[in-house]
Amino acid sequence: HDLSGIKVCNLEEKPLSDITNEVNSKTKALRLGNDKPINRIIKLLSWFPTWLCRYIIKLIDFLQYTLNISPSIIGLPQDRFGTIIISAVGAFGLEEAYIPLFPFARTPYSMGVGKPQLKPIVKDGAVVAEHVVTITFTADHRVVDGAQGAQMIRLFKKMFLNPEFYLGAH
Q1: How deeply is 10 buried, as exposed, middle or buried, from its count of CB atoms within 10 A (0-12, 13-18, 19+)?
Q2: What is the pLDDT of residues 20-75, one digit of tens each?
Q3: In what order do the strands lie in the sheet containing 109-113?
Q4: Which residue of 57, 104, 125, 163 sits 20 to 30 Å from the alpha carbon of 81, by its own alpha carbon?
Q5: Which of 139, 102, 138, 97 minimizes the C-alpha distance to 114?
């Protein structure tokens, strides 16, 4: 499986419909092999034996984040990661997964969106079968502590229940 991803910038400035359209468009391009930056990365790494790729990635990491030299000088994107990595693990048949943080991304949060499952829930005082999705979060405690994380989760729940109110047109 190809675990390449997309990046959406400036979410706070965009209405939910624009975010949805951008995600769909970028995902389609990625799946069709039309994502030029990813293709450049794949092409660059294909020139080297697999065992050497780890060191090439570490070198790019050092140049970009330690020396602040843009990898664009060799045709690579500046940063393919953002503030949070969201992985649709449900696409792999997983109902729940905690996405690990990995150093190269320099991303303090990750979120896993699981496969929908039919579960009993209480709705209007009656037990009914509804589809439920498990969403997991992983946070770098060097960036956020438990209290801040809980605050973020509460806001996320509110946003999830009423996305147009929080992410609607600006």
Answers
A1: exposed
A2: 898 899 889 888 888 888 888 888 888 999 899 889 888 888 888 889 888 888 77
A3: 84-87, 109-113, 135-139
A4: 163
A5: 97
| 159 Cβ neighbours under 8 A, 6+ residues apart | 166, 167
Tokens of 160: 């999830």
Which residues, listed in sequence order, are joined to residue 26 by a DSSP beta bridge? none
**C-alpha dihedral sign at 81, 86, 90, 96:** positive
Among all chains, which residue has been given the structure tokens 């829930």?
A: 121
Report the candidate in 135, 3, 5, 136 with the shortest Cα–Cα distance to residue 81: 5
CA atoms of 170 and 148, how far apart (whole Å): 26
Cα–Cα distances in angstroms (integers) from residue 5 to residues 97, 131, 138, 165, in the given order:
17, 26, 18, 27
Q: Does the reported pTM lie above 0.70?
A: yes
